[in-house]
Automatic annotation (TrEMBL):
PANTHER family: P3 PROTEIN-RELATED, SODIUM-BILE ACID COTRANSPORTER. InterPro entries: BilAc:Na_symport/Acr3 (IPR002657), Bilac:Na_transpt (IPR004710), Na+/solute_symporter_sf (IPR038770). This is Bile acid:sodium symporter family protein. The chain crosses the membrane at residues 24-46, 52-71, 83-105, 111-131, 138-159, 179-197, 209-231, 237-257. It is a multi-pass membrane protein. Keywords: Membrane, Transmembrane, Transmembrane helix. It comes from the Bacteria.
Length: 334
């Protein structure tokens, strides 16, 4: 989930919300790219920081929880079929694509496991903002992203074991515990704080996207620094894998919505919910359970899916005006 998600629903008209969303979608990839360059140029600066990645991710997920309200779950009750389809498409298409791409490109075991792990991660909630920019179905996007995050401890570990187990040993039980500690518990804690101290939290909502952005940038710098020696030889192959993974995910997600006859706005939301991943979680799990090199696909994905998402959203917005004037949820993530 990504920090641009923390943008509150605009209250001063759609143009103000668009400006805030575009600013975050533009600044965040640049910041992450700069952090990756720093990690590559000066890896010694981040030596020994790898153990801090789960805690940094916990900060991001807590920020996400702070921006959530019970209203984010209403869409599940209103349209259970559409949300269920989004969840199935996300957790079938992206893991399957990760496995196929790893085989097709003959990736090394570490990189293959990393690509598959990205595919098995829950939806990246930056999808909410790009769905908004695309004039698509934001309510569906919020529901799928929220539920996929809640279900991650039950779904991500067994999928990773099933698909990546042929490359590297996978301790699914330990992975469940890590996801609970670094994702679900911080999100729930943030939600509880928002419910109890909402009027105080509202005063700092504007600062949360930038706190999340800086934290994600730190994660990327640490991950890149940990595998700096291998990046020069593997960078082109990893980017190709990420480009295919993200691009095919966007296309197949849109196609799933069209096949199910969900309508144009919902199909566009499905594209982003399937094609955009919680790469921060994938990076954390890869670092903890595999190696820094296995976390490299997550770091690259973290930058690229924001760039591609923003470009696709801009193209979609030019071909159709907003059907209902929806605004993005106040969520944050990696």
């Amino acid at each position: 989930m990504h920090p641009e998600q923390t943008i509150s629903a605009p209250t001063g008209g759609r143009s103000g919300g668009d400006k805030a969303a575009r600013r975050a979608v533009t600044v965040f990839p640049v910041l992450v790219l700069a952090a990756g360059a720093l990690g590559l140029a000066a890896p010694g600066v981040f030596e020994g920081w790898g153990t801090g990645v789960p805690y940094l991710l916990g900060v991001v997920m807590f920020c996400m929880g702070l921006t959530m309200t019970p209203l984010d779950f209403q869409g599940v009750v209103k349209r259970p079929w559409a949300v269920a389809l989004g969840l199935v498409a996300h957790y079938v298409i992206m893991p399957g694509l990760g496995w196929l791409i790893a085989h097709a490109l003959n990736l090394s075991p570490q990189l293959a496991a990393g690509v598959i792990l990205v595919g098995c991660a829950p939806s990246g909630t930056a999808s909410n903002v790009v769905t908004y920019l695309a004039r698509a179905d934001v309510a569906l996007s919020v529901s799928v992203a929220t539920v996929s995050t809640v279900l991650a401890p039950l779904v991500t570990p067994p999928l990773t074991l099933l698909l990546a187990g042929e490359y590297l040993p996978v301790d699914a039980g330990s992975m469940v515990t890590d996801i609970l500690k670094t994702v679900l518990l911080p999100v729930l804690a943030g939600l509880v704080v928002r419910l109890l101290f909402g009027r105080y939290v509202d005063r700092v909502l504007g600062a949360l996207p930038w706190l999340s952005a800086l934290t994600i940038a730190a994660i990327v710098a640490i991950v890149v620094a940990g595998s700096a020696a291998a990046i020069k030889s593997a960078a082109a192959l990893v980017f190709l894998a990420v480009f295919l993974h993200n691009g095919l995910g966007l296309a197949l997600g849109y196609g799933a919505g069209k096949l199910a006859r969900l309508g144009q706005p919902a199909s566009r939301a499905m594209a982003f919910e399937v094609g955009m991943q919680n790469s921060g979680l994938a990076a954390s799990l890869a670092t903890a359970h595999f190696s820094p090199l296995a976390a490299l696909p997550s770091a690259v994905f973290s930058v690229w899916h924001n760039v591609s998402g923003a470009l696709v959203a801009a193209w979609m917005a030019r071909t159709r005006k907003s059907p209902d004037g929806q605004r993005p949820s106040s969520a944050s993530g990696a």
